Amino acid sequence: MAIDLKKFVLRFIDEANGHLQTVKEGAFLLIAGQNSEAQIGEMFRAAHTLKGGARMLKLPSIADVTHQLEEILSELRDRKLEPDQNLGALILQACDYIANLLDRLAASDGNNQLPPADGALCEQLARASRGEMASDRVVAPTPAVEKTLTLPTLDALDGGLKQAGSVRVKLEKLDDLINILGEVVASHDRLEQQVHSLVKLGPHLAQMDAEQLRQQVLQFSHRLKEDFQVQHLQMYELYDVATTIRMLPMSMLFEPVSTQVRELAASLNKQVDCRILGGEVEIDRQLIDRLSEPLTHLLRNAIDHGIGEAAERLALGKSARGAITLTTQQDGRGILLRVEDDGRGLNYSAIRAKAVARGLVDAEVVEQLSEQECNELIFHPGFSTSKIVTELSGRGVGLDIVRKTIVTDLQGTLQVHSRPGMGTSFIIRLPISLAMMRILQFELQGHLFGLAAQYVVEVVNYSRNEIRDIAGRPAIILHNEFIPVISAAELLRIQERPGSQPLSAPAGNSLLLIIIQNQFGKMAMLADSLLDERNMMIKPLPKHMQQHSLVSGMVLSQDNQLVSVLQVPVLMEMAQKQKQTRTAAPEPETRRNAWHVLVVDDSLNTREIEKNVLEAHGYQVTLAEDGLSGLQKARLTQFDAVLTDVEMPVMDGFSLTKALRAEENYQHTPIIIVTSRAKEEDRRRGIQVGADAYIAKGDFEQDSLIETLKMLLC
Q: Are 486 and 570 in the same domain?
């Protein structure tokens, strides 16, 4: 059955106008000579996304002009064109032309009756992208645009925009809303009656003795408390029902996907099926709109890079037809979205080579990058492993938009799992709504801040003498993990109050630590005190603050103070950069002649901290996330020493040690167990399976580790 694209065209109009505004703002900066590389990058991504949406919805006139516009922005981004006023004026002219087309599309109720693209304008844009535009000529408006287009009436335009911004609501949802509103009104009447009763009681207070007065106050307090609790529950129920009215099924996002996947695959001579699971799951309309762009990029990436042609798949024993699976399910307080393909998987060799070519990683250490670190590289702006530039790939745009939208804009998390030859999965976790979120409020140096509860693991108290200096920065040991301690006050440049004790102060008072986490690890953040944790209405930032990526929104505290909600991924990234700045890298000569050590631990934090300690002393380090992975890497590379945890999935440290000792080339290699298990029986077992040393994390001292390693290697 053919899919009616008309309803998606109306939604596209809103999105397209937003992208067009980004390009226009950048064009004005070009004319004013105030452009920046970041701004040009934003313009390019906006044009690229606009073009892709237009092509998907069969709007060739918009797509053709936007394609030529994208070519100019691509050349500007790559510094092959010099920005000037004429280019800015030409870009503005193209934006006006596209805006007129969008207006006409809205006035026609989404019916695609647009004329072909203006050939003269497209040719002018093409010449400009090749650097053939005269430098002394300011572009005049193209007459063809005025002749081709007629402005819609205000009534028609208004009607089209209203339809694009509307949602359909089931009658039962409206019935629920009206019923609860009736209960809220009745509850309000009861509270009003309580007030009248209190007023009437006033003149009689002087005639009552103490006992009568006490009884009257207790009765009034009891009734008021009951009515307040009822209204409190009703308000939350009212919010829940009101929220569902804005909810739309994910099928609204997924319906056009099958057509898109089939057409993109056919253009690349590939056969791809798209399976949709959980399309009935409902999420906020805001999220539906914002997910359209990243989902499109993920699908293009899967078809172009992931799934091979039929002959390639058959040679590998796979079906000739590739498969992309989109799965949605409720996950606790949020939504879990998976985009999976059964293709080639990520090409880690190509990713490492591109990282070296782009100057992102030194050639000397690129082979030491873990798969997770390689996964992170693909989200870097401008990163692409495609050998040629095509309509779908090679431009280095796409996955950076995905991460920005998911993590920064939508307060979600994004993870990648890939198996060579088997396929790739992108796992996205999102809140159900952006309007209401559970927020943990805390105080820091007299300032109030909030954190989205989804990033908070737990809150703990530690004494100052439990804070250890590991790899040049403070850290704690919690649940068998080394967790770095960060000062949000220092990162936010908040001046310490007189009398406050910094982290470096002598031992004595305990420290309140909020353990925060994203997909890359955990950190312990210092706080002065906790205020509360509850569901709160998120207020968007004013326009002049929207460029501050560290703050995602504002909430009102119980005493009506504005509280900034901090963006945890950005905060953790700032802390990581601060650490890299402070940590001196080993000299290249030292690294080249270093002993090669394998570090095996299922905790990313612990692996990174132990790696920092070892590299600071000149060792070369390779990481593994569990015993089986460590054993596989040890069989491929001869390491000079092995550090391993005990409690790990798949294969624990005792089993790894025993398996390594069974290997002929590891019978005499130093193996050190570093674990939180400090019982004597555990130590004995470690020695029995062949460990040369056993270090409890609770007694961990980096100097002791280095001395032990030196002694065993000499």
A: yes
